[in-house]
Amino acid sequence: MARTRRIKLAGRDAIYHIMSRTAGRQMLLADAGVKRDMLRALERSAEFSGVEVLSFALMDNHFHLVVRIPSPEEPVPEEEVLRRYAVLVGKVKADELESRLAHMRERGDSHSVDIILDRMRSRMYDLSQFGKTFKETFGRIFRRRRPWCGNLWEGRFKSTLIGEAEYLRICTAYVELNPVRAGLSTSSSGYEWCTTGAAERGNAFAQRCRERLAAVAGFGDSPRSEGWLMKRAPQISCGKIFGSSEFVAESLGLLADRVKSRTARPRRIKGGEGFSSHGHLLAAKIERKAA
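The structure assignment produced for this chain is given below.
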C-alpha cells in the first residue's frame, strides 16, 4: 500500500506538531540518560535542518515536538552547510567532507561538489527531512551505547499543521501537559524533559525554545482550560490542519491544484474551539491524485 503524502506548506513559513512512538510502544526512552541523548540529538538536528523548535516533551515511549519550518529566500551558502554538518556529525567528519570537496575541485570536478552540497541543502527547511534526520541521529546514538537490534520507531512520525497564535498556544499547552497526563509529574515545570521543566533547570536549548515560542505566539496563556487540554485533544492527529476556519480553508486552497474533494474543507472540532481538516481522507486523496 502506498504511503499517504504529508500535508506540508511549501514556499512559506509553517508550524507543525510532530509525534512519534517507539516500536511496539516499548518504554525504551524511560532512562534519563536516553532522554538526555535525545535532547542533544534534537538540538543538533534542528540546527542542521534550519528548524526552530518551539516546544518539546520527551516521554518514555514517544515524543512530541512543535517546530517552525522557515522558508529561506536564498540557498544556504557552502560555508553554512559545512558548519551545520559539523554540528550534526562532529568536526572530524565535517573536516573530512571539506577536504573531499577541495580534492574534487582540484580535479576540476565542480559538478560533483554541487551535487553533494545540493543533496545536503535538500535536507534543510523540510518537515519530512527534519523528522528523518532527528530520528536517525538519535537512533545511531541509542544503538551505539545500548544493545538494541531492529526498528527503534513505530513507523513514520505523525504531523499536524498548526495555525495562528491562539491555536499554537493550545497545541504547545497540550504538549507541555503530556507528562502530567501520563502521571510522570504534577506539573510541566516539575518534569525535566519538557520545555518548561528543562528551561527552569537552566537548559540553554529549552530556554531558546521558549524565547522563540514567545516571539511567535506571544506570552498569552492557552485559551482552553487545563482540564480540557488534559484530554486527548482531537486536533492532534496525523495529516491534519488545525486553526481558524480561515487558516484551514487557506491552507487547503494552497493544495487546490493537487486535491479537489468535499472532505477537504474546515470542520469544527467537537467539544473545543477551532477547526480541522479531515486529514486522513485528504492525504489519501492527494496520494491518488499524484499516482
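Interim note for the steering committee: The two ends are 12 Å apart (CA to CA). The chain has a mean pLDDT of 85.
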